[in-house]
């Protein structure tokens, strides 16, 4: 910094910088740049302002200017904190954090005694996961300023080298590093320097990684253990004893905890497990003294006795705790797992369900608690339990609940009845009658108990309507009539008018709309869910993943961009969690944050969205220059397939289907098969893009490199074919569509039904023959390309039928979109062929073309005309198909359900659905029209 700036008063500097920061905070880059220029006129060498100017220029899209300023600043080797922080922000947005490390390394060399610079250098290493450099920097910092946190930074850096760095794949090196970390922590203990719980936790972490659980127990029981919060120390001891399989101690610790905290569910589960472990080893359960608490329970009878003792204590409380009551079910589950008689110890299991329902049936959690233990009952017992619970509520066919609690009990009884499989045995007439009854109960519940509630609360009777929607979906499957789904949408639409915050209903409506292929209406409801941040990853599959098959390309672009932006922002900003963990000593959270960051960065949904976004760019590409500017992945940028993570929240839908009573949706075999299919679809889709990228490089290559690029393209095509053959040998059975929690079927099926590879490979063979000026081969490949392209409309016509109901419209729409994608990519390849025949930006004077060039022009025009003819044919097919409207007798269906009050709403829904179809068709036709214009220009 210049002498003028160095001698300036700090308050003057702050006053000059404040307006710049204020405009930056407001995202007004233009004003911020103006303020920078004002200051730089007076002090041209003001480093902090120049760094802020670089940041502003980057945000304005002037990346090269930004980098020029940063290079200039680096040559001056600044050391003041404000300048370095501003430069750090620049490099962070440039995603070049390695240069932040170099920048602080230079600053530390210039001011080796500056503690703040050392700290920032350490944090810069944290951001790039350079664990070895972290260790060295932290040790230098500790030698300069011997503080406990810096010493712990050294130890944690060594631990990370062992678990995530160079020692993670070498067991010998890993053990060596962990032993070093343990000795360092032991020295800290011997020197009596430990004075905070975080430091003890770090020592426990190191001992745990070494498997020294006995030393963990000794540490907690030593005077140092008193520095830990008591509940934390208890749980550390409990976990260490469980790892050592000291089940007697585990049992006694659990009993101690549960005698004071009755509702610790994780402790209840560990306690029950320890009982059966002791029973298997025949260990005597006597403790050191004769008290009940100090005696370990080694039989199921003693376990049940202890639970009953706790229940007697709970009964005296004015409030009810669910833990002890659920512990009986957990005991029953363990007995069943060991193939022991449950009735001998617990009595009639179904009676336990009734007792629990009597005590907690008025709470929404009751059904969730009980459903995982329904596996304790056989089919006859389940049917009996369903009848008992409905009778227990005391509401008959002609009566209504007399209180909000009784209504909640009735809802719970109906949900448990469905979980027991009661609805599976009902006839269509019974199911219709049940829908009518549930709709009437919903209306009564809303009128009696839900009218005066705030709009942000869920209505107390909403689950009646949601359950009715589930039954309507069942009817649509049984009778193969999607009109029931339209009625369900209308019913849920009425619910959302009364209870606009009910996200369960919104999720169902979005799903139902997508079942019908009505993406526009689904998008409207999806926006009301206000899904953001992590939910874009966990819940994106309910809408974003299905938009690509609907033809609404503008909506696709919006959702793809917002999702990709979230992941990019999250990857940049989540690094702060790591630095904060070091600053506050939360070492036990570091692994969790790093795992989370990797999980998000390797999200399968993110990968699919990025690939779909590139395909969408190809659809919208209309000239060679724009094509060259697209970021199309090459074979060198292969996705790390083994690291991809399925982050979908598949349990988000309320479900009372018996199939998911004992296991979650995400663990079902159908979901595992679906994920494999989605992964294969992503691989094929990526290979398609890599092929287009290789074809583009052939055109861009200089004469000396062209042959090498052509060989690369041929190899990419071979890899694509090999992959496709392998995928076709896998399990291609689509996921069942008869259960609401299941996601939609994989797009792999639609991909394989569309001749992506044969058509693209044929056009690329033609491109390769043009590239080497092989006219005989060009004529052969031209005919082959024409034949492959002309198959598209024929395949579509053979699949599309005269009868067009709601379900067939959705599937037909996906077929049209897939064919549109293929035609658009064919147009892109035609652009590349044109670039070979007529190089873009050629400055040669116009003169008579040679014969060979005219022949290539002629062959190219034949391929282009084939694509144009196919666009015309597919466009006509779309027009004819869109005009096939089947009149739906929705009024008659409502009459059967006695839901005449919803007639108007249902008719409106039908009109909304048809309008959404029309908009999708219009978007597809617009793309076809744009492609025809493009081909005319070629």
Automatic annotation (TrEMBL):
<keyword id="KW-0175">Coiled coil</keyword>
<feature type="coiled-coil region">
    <location>
        <begin position="775"/>
        <end position="802"/>
    </location>
</feature>
<dbReference type="InterPro" id="IPR019183">
    <property type="entry name" value="NAA25_NatB_aux_su"/>
</dbReference>
<dbReference type="InterPro" id="IPR011990">
    <property type="entry name" value="TPR-like_helical_dom_sf"/>
</dbReference>
<comment type="similarity">
    <text>Belongs to the MDM20/NAA25 family.</text>
</comment>
<keyword id="KW-0802">TPR repeat</keyword>
<dbReference type="Pfam" id="PF09797">
    <property type="entry name" value="NatB_MDM20"/>
</dbReference>
<dbReference type="GO" id="GO:0031416">
    <property type="term" value="C:NatB complex"/>
</dbReference>
<protein>
    <recommendedName>
        <fullName>N-terminal acetyltransferase B complex subunit MDM20 homolog</fullName>
    </recommendedName>
</protein>
């Amino acid at each position: 910094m210049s002498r003028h700036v160095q001698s300036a008063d700090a308050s003057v500097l702050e006053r000059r910088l404040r307006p710049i920061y204020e405009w930056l905070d407001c995202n007004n880059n233009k004003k911020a740049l103006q303020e920078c220029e004002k200051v730089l006129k007076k002090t041209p060498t003001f480093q902090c302002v120049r760094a802020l100017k670089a940041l502003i220029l980057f945000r304005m899209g002037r990346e090269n200017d930004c980098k020029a300023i940063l290079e200039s600043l680096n040559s001056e080797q600044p050391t003041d904190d404000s300048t370095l922080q501003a430069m750090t922000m620049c490099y962070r947005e440039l995603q070049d954090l390695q240069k932040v490390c170099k920048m602080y390394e230079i600053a530390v060399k210039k001011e080796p005694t500056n503690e703040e610079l050392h700290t920032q250098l350490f944090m810069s290493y944290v951001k790039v996961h350079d664990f070895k450099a972290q260790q060295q920097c932290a040790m230098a910092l500790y030698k300069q300023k011997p503080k406990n946190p810096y010493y712990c930074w050294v130890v944690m850096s060594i631990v990370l080298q062992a678990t995530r760095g160079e020692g993670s794949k070498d067991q010998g090196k890993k053990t060596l590093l962990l032993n070093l970390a343990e000795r360092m922590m032991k020295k800290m203990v011997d020197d009596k320097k430990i004075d905070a719980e975080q430091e003890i936790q770090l020592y426990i972490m190191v001992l745990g990684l070494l498997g020294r659980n006995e030393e963990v127990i000794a540490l907690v029981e030593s005077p140092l253990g008193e520095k830990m919060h008591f509940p934390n120390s208890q749980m550390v001891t409990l976990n260490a004893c469980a790892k050592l399989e000291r089940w007697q101690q585990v049992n006694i610790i659990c009993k101690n905890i549960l005698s004071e905290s009755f509702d610790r569910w994780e402790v209840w589960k560990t306690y029950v497990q320890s009982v059966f472990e002791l029973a298997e080893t025949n260990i005597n359960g006597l403790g050191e003294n004769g008290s009940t608490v100090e005696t370990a329970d080694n039989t199921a009878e003693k376990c049940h006795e202890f639970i009953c003792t706790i229940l007697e204590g709970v009964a005296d409380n004015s409030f009810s705790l669910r833990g002890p009551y659920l512990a009986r079910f957990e005991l029953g589950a363990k007995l069943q797992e060991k193939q022991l008689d449950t009735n001998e110890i617990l009595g009639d299991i179904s009676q336990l369900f009734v007792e629990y329902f009597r005590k907690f049936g008025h709470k929404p959690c009751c059904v969730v608690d009980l459903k995982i233990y329904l596996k304790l009952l056989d089919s006859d017992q389940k049917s009996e339990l369903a009848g008992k619970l409905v009778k227990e509520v005391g509401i008959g066919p002609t009566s209504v609940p007399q209180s909000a609690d009784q209504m909640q009990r009735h809802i719970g009884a109906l949900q448990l009845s469905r979980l027991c499989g009661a609805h599976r045995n009902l006839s269509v007439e019974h199911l219709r009658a049940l829908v009518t009854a549930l709709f009437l109960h919903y209306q009564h519940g809303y009128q009696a108990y839900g009218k005066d509630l705030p709009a942000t609360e869920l209505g107390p009777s909403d689950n009646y309507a949601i359950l009715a929607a589930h039954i309507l979906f069942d009817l649509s499957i049984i009778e193969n009539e999607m009109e029931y789904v339209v009625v369900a949408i209308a019913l849920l639409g009425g619910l959302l008018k009364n209870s606009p915050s009910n996200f369960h209903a919104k999720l169902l409506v979005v799903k139902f709309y997508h079942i019908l292929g009505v993406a526009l209406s689904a998008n409207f409801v999806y926006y009301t869910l206000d899904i953001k941040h992590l939910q874009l990853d966990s819940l994106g599959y309910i809408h974003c993943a299905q938009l690509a098959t609907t033809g609404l390309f503008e909506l696709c672009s919006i959702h793809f961009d917002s999702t990709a932006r979230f992941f990019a922002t999250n990857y940049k900003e989540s690094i702060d969690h790591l630095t904060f963990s070091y600053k506050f000593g939360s070492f036990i959270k570091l692994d969790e944050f790093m795992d989370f960051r990797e999980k998000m960065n390797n999200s399968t949904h993110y990968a699919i969205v990025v690939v779909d976004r590139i395909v969408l760019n190809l659809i919208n590409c209309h000239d060679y220059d724009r094509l060259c500017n697209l970021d199309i992945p090459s074979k060198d940028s292969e996705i790390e397939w083994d690291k991809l993570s399925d982050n979908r929240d598949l349990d988000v839908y309320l479900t009372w289907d018996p199939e998911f009573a004992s296991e979650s949706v995400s663990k079902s075999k159908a979901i595992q098969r679906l994920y494999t299919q989605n992964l294969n679809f992503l691989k094929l889709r990526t290979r398609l893009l890599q092929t287009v990228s290789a074809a583009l490089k052939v055109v861009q290559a200089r004469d000396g490199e062209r042959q090498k690029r052509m060989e690369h393209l041929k190899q990419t095509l071979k890899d694509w074919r090999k992959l496709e053959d392998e995928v076709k040998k896998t399990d291609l059975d689509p996921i069942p569509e008869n259960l609401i929690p299941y996601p939609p079927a994989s797009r792999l099926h639609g991909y394989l039904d569309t001749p992506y590879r044969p058509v693209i490979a044929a056009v690329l063979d033609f491109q390769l023959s043009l590239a080497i000026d092989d006219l005989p081969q060009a004529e052969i490949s031209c005919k082959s390309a024409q034949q492959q392209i002309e198959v598209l409309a024929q395949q579509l016509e053979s699949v599309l039928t005269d009868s067009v109901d709601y379900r067939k419209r959705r599937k037909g729409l996906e077929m049209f979109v897939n064919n549109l994608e293929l035609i658009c990519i064919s147009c892109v390849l035609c652009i590349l062929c044109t670039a070979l025949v007529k190089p873009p930006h050629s400055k040669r004077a116009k003169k008579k073309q040679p014969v060979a060039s005219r022949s290539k022009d002629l062959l190219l025009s034949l391929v282009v005309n084939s694509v144009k003819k196919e666009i015309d044919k597919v466009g006509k097919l779309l027009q004819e198909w869109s005009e096939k409207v089947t009149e739906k007798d929705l009024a008659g269906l409502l009459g059967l359900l006695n839901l005449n009050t919803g007639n108007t709403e249902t008719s409106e829904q039908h009109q909304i659905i048809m309008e959404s179809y029309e908009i999708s068709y219009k978007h597809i036709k617009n793309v076809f029209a744009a492609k025809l214009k493009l081909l005319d220009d070629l």
